[in-house]
C-alpha cells in the first residue's frame, strides 16, 4: 500500500501571505485616513429642527443627500410642492438633489439628521 502524505501547508508560504496581508492593511488604513482628511471639507453633517415647513436645499448645489427623521412624528419631503414622500420616525432616505427640497411637519416638531456629500 502506498500511503499519501498529509497536505501540510508550507510555513514559509503562510508567513509571506501574513506579511502581505498586514502590509495591505497598513496601506489601507493610511489611504482611508487620507481620504477622510481630504473629503471632510466636502461633507456636511448637521441636525435640523423642523416645525412647519423649512427649505432643506436650495437646488443650486447638486449631489446626494441622506436624511434621517430623528424625531417622533412623521414629516413630508417634497420638491417645490410637486410630489414627495413621507419620512416616518427613525426612517432614512437618500436621494439626489437637483431642485429645491422642502420638509414639512403637519403638527408638532421633529428633527432631521442631514448628510450632504
Please sum up the structure shown.
It is built from one helix and eight strands; from the N terminus they run αββββββββ.
CATH class of the largest domain: Mainly Beta
Query: What is the approximate shape?
Result: elongated
Percent strand equals: 35-45%
CATH architectural designation of the largest domain: Sandwich
- Average pLDDT confidence is 82
- CATH T-level fold name of the largest domain: Jelly Rolls
Spatially, the strands of the biggest sheet line up as 1-8-3-6
What's the helix count?
Answer: 1
Query: Could you tell me how far the N terminus lies from the C terminus, measured between alpha carbons in angstroms?
Result: 68 Å
Total separate domains: 2
Residue share in helices?
Answer: 10-25%
Radius of gyration: 25 Å
Order of helices and strands: HEEEEEEEE
Return residue spans where pLDDT drops below 50 for at least 5 consecutive residues. none
Total number of β-strand segments? 8
Decide which structural class fits the backbone.
alpha+beta
Name the quaternary structure. Answer: single chain
Main β-sheet: number of strands, strand sense, barrel status?
A: 4 strands, antiparallel
